[in-house]
Amino acid sequence: MEDDLELVVGVGGVELLERADPVAEQGGDPGIEPLDVDLDPRDPRRIAIATEEGLFVSRDGGRTWRQRAVLTAETHLAWSESGTLYRVDASGLVQVSEDGGERWERAGDAGGPPTTVTVDADGRLYVALPGAMIARSDDGGRSFEELVTLKAR
């Protein structure tokens, strides 16, 4: 079933379409441009998008959206395979949601404004930070250690 789904991201929003339905209706558009998007790996019909207007979550593949939080302009999202949704804002503040964005708890500080955020299969959170640094958290975003600082040759 997951192979039959396609995530479409555009200026008007995001949508999860069934590939087998080439005439799928445009719908679920929250009317704002997504700055970041992530899917729940356990249920690809659950989508979270960060916009300048806030965090929006869809539980039905983009047909309907609910605003879950107000965010800073530069917020990055990462959904782990265990279902934990992370958000890291421009100040480096890490927040965690165990219920798909309904409620958030402060976890820690990534150490600066991230340029991107991801979670590996073992639940470790990675952030790319200014100065070409990549940091990792092994404890759900409470603390970070520098993995590497990239240098030009």
Structural class: mainly beta
How many E-type strands?
14
CATH topology: Neuraminidase
The tally of helices reads: 0
Radius of gyration equals 16 Å
The CATH architecture assignment turns out to be 6 Propeller
Order of helices and strands: EEEEEEEEEEEEEE
CATH homology group: TolB, C-terminal domain
Could you tell me the mean pLDDT? 81
Spatial ordering of strands, largest sheet: 3-4-5-6
Please report the first level of CATH classification, the CATH class: Mainly Beta
Main pleated-sheet profile: 4 strands, antiparallel
Q: What spatial form do the alpha-carbon principal axes imply?
A: globular
What would your notes on this structure say?
It is a single chain. This protein is mainly beta and 153 residues long. The chain has strands at residues 5-10, 13-18, 34-40, 43-51, 54-58, 66-69, 76-79, 85-88, 93-97, 105-109, 116-119, 125-129, 133-137, 145-149. Mean pLDDT is 81; it is low at 1-7 and 17-27.
Q: Any descriptors?
A:
single chain; four-stranded antiparallel sheet; Neuraminidase; 153 residues
Entry summary:
The chain is mainly β and 153 residues long. The chain has strands at residues 5-10, 13-18, 34-40, 43-51, 54-58, 66-69, 76-79, 85-88, 93-97, 105-109, 116-119, 125-129, 133-137, 145-149. It has no helices and 14 strands.
What does the secondary structure layout of this molecule look like, with pairings?
Blueprint (H helix, E strand, L loop, with lengths): L4 E6 L2 E6 L15 E7 L2 E9 L2 E5 L7 E4 L6 E4 L5 E4 L4 E5 L7 E5 L6 E4 L5 E5 L3 E5 L7 E5 L4
Antiparallel strand pairs: 1-2, 3-4, 4-5, 5-6, 7-8, 8-9, 9-10, 11-12, 12-13, 13-14
